Amino acid sequence: MSNYSFPVPTQDHRKQLDAQGFVVLDQCIDRDLVGALVSEVERLWELEGDQAGAEFKQEENTRRLANLVDKSLLFEQVVLQPDSLSLVQHILGTFKLSSLNARSANPHSACRQPLHCDGGYLPDSHGSLVANVIWCLDDFTPENGTLRVVPGTHAAGLLPQDALDDPLAEHADQERISAKSGSLIVMNAHLWHSGVENRTGMPRRALHAYYCRRDQPQQQFQRRVLSRTTQDEVSPQMRHMLALDDTPLEVEVCGANAVSGFLDR
Ligand SMILES: O=C(O)CCC(=O)C(=O)O
Fold first, then answer.
1. Which of 105, 111, 251, 261 could disulfide-link to 204, CB 3.0 to 4.6 Å?
2. CB of 160 closer than 6 A to ligand 1?
3. In the prediction, which pLDDT does 264 show?
4. What are the distances in angstroms from CA 81 to CA 15, 30, 78, 237?
5. From ligand 1's centre to the CA of 108, what distance in Å?
6. DSSP result, 199-257
7. pLDDT at 229
8. How many CB atoms within 10 Å of residue 34?
9. Helix (H) or strand (E) run with residue 16 in it
10. pLDDT score for 259
């Protein structure tokens, strides 16, 4: 058991997560922190150029970044954000960070994704395996490449690629989320979801703080991807969240865990 505890989520949030599979925490992040995160991801995109995101996966019509914990101590505030962690705990029980990435939907681009479940996972007999907290660094609007979700499908027991003729197509029950910059979208990552096309002239930037149940493999095996300096520098709570002192799972050691819900296909 972890010694770290989080605020108790409201009953409304717990009910919404259980029934719909997601909750929007409206503008709960301080503006200064959002501004600092935007500057930091833009600095990294500039620095990494066409290699940005390549440590995990690159995606057409988007800019991505991977392994963010290694790139600035600022991201500790993202990974350990208490309100989001209380909801992640509700979804997963005991958990750890799986990866921290950024994704920006390019202006005027066909960056629509197929509906997918993160990691291509279905829940197992113990419950949900994965949860995602999407940090809105810009306003998310129906026009600018927001997130669409199909409420309730985290409990469908089916992957969208198996249930639908065309996971790229509009879904009759989908909802395009509108959220202001500084909001968090906490999602059971078995929920069918995807980014959509950006029809505006501005990028739509987000961070994806992706968590997995503690007995599951990390998408980016933190003990391998983090530099020795980062591993020595992080706080004790962050060390625990990164599972730096856990016995690694075989699949993490052999690197077979770097899976996306759709980018491999
Ligand atoms: O950035 C988004 O809106 C969602 C992206 C997503 O679902 C993914 O990359 O797996």
1. 105
2. no
3. 64
4. 21, 11, 5, 12
5. 17
6. -SSS-EEEEEEEEEETTS--SS-HHHHS-HHHHHHS-HHHHHHTTTTSPPPHHHHTTTT
7. 97
8. 19
9. helix 11-20
10. 78
Residue 157's CB is within 10 A of a number of other CB atoms, namely 10
Beta partners for residue 148, in sequence order: 176, 194
The ligand 1 atom at the shortest distance from the C-alpha of residue 140 is 3
Please tell me the distance between residue 239's alpha carbon and the centre of ligand 1 in angstroms. Answer: 26
Main-chain dihedrals φ then ψ at residue 82, nearest 5 degrees: -65, -40
Atom 4 in ligand 1: residue holding the nearest Cα: 195
- Residue recorded with tokens 């990435």: 101
Biggest CA–CA distance in the chain, Å, is: 49
Output the CA 232–ligand 1 centroid distance in Å: 31
Name the stretches of the chain with pLDDT < 50.
1, 265
Best CATH choice for the domain 11-253 from the list 2.60.120.620, 2.40.50.1020, 2.60.120.40, 2.30.39.10: 2.60.120.620
Atom of ligand 1 nearest to the CA of 260: 10
73 phi-psi bin (left φ>0, alpha ψ -120 to 50, beta other): alpha
Beta pairing partners, 64: 103
Span from the CA of 147 to the centroid of ligand 1 (angstroms): 7
Q: How much is the pTM?
A: 0.95
CA-CA distances (angstroms) from residue 245 to 3, 50, 153, 222, 223?
14, 34, 35, 11, 9
- Interval between CA 240 and ligand 1 midpoint (Å): 26
Residue 198 burial (CB count, 10 A): 25
- Nearest residue (CA) to ligand 1, atom 7: 194
Closest CA to 179 of 147, 133, 131: 147
